[in-house]
Amino acid sequence: MMENLKSSGDRKLSCGDETKCFQLLESILDGENGLDSKQVLNEKLAKCQPCFEYYHLEQAIRELVKTKCTMQPVPEELAASIRQKIEEIR
Amino acid sequence: MSEVQRKKYSDRDKNSIFDNEFMPHIDSMYNFAFRLTFDEDDAKDLVQDTYLKAYRFINSFEKGTNAKAWLFRILKNSFINEYRKKSKQPTKVDYQEVETYYNSESVDYSITSDLRVDAVKDLIGDEISNALNSLAVDFRTVIILCDLEGFTYEEMAKILDIPIGTVRSRLHRARNLLKEKLRSYAQNMGYDTEED
């Protein structure tokens, strides 16, 4: 876990524009940025510790929501009951 | 969005669209409905009403386009118009208040949580689910649409009838609120979340 922080000595410890950077990081995590975002991202994360930490926390939370908020089992009769109601109004 | 061209589908077309384009989304629709209502019967009613409306208005759906977003939009509107009024779950935050206060697009990104990645990874499913469920419905909705259903900002803007900038800022605020909840869970587990 501490591996993430190993090279923190190479990164600047405060971010010049958190608002702009964090917004960009969120867009990238949400898949909203285009092809060139991968390189921008790598450069940013290599240089800036707050961006690095923010990105990894945001990534972990998205991952967690995706994997832990499991689907509710759909009641078996629901699809049939919808089809029946549709038949009635046809 | 461009003006919807009304179609005149034959019964056969209607059935085919309904079976092949609408029904495959029933799992996602039910899941969304359940996370909005927290009640199995209300969720079933909401999904059923949504499909009936979808069938009734099928001529305003263009075959082969984004059926899932179209259905989600109907479901969300039905929820707001009908279910929220009689919902057993009292809304924690006044909707209008949330709308006016939280719809501004300027967001302070500099307020960062001191939550740590390792603390987050040890949280269990129930805690995440409870944290998500505890958010006011507008915030809960954007996280469900984005993270669980994988909608793009543009699709979310259409589903929710809000500008993309508002989608972005609402998502940001929703995630901050979620982080606050998770942080309190992490603290209860004995993680030191304070900066050292």
What is the molecular shape of chain B?
elongated
The largest pleated sheet of chain A is described as: none
Low-confidence stretches of chain B: none
Estimated structural class of chain B = mainly alpha
Largest interface: A-B, 40 and 49 residues
- Report the average pLDDT across residues of chain A: 85
- Assembly type of the chains comes to heterodimer
Integer tally of domains of chain A: 1
CATH homologous superfamily classification of the largest domain in chain B: Winged helix-like DNA-binding domain superfamily/Winged helix DNA-binding domain
The N- and C-terminal alpha carbons of chain A lie at a distance of: 60 Å
CATH architecture of the largest domain in chain B: Orthogonal Bundle
H/E element sequence of chain A: HHHHH
Give the terminus-to-terminus CA distance of chain B. 50 Å
Spatial shape of chain A: elongated
Can you give the helix content of chain B as a percent range?
55-70%
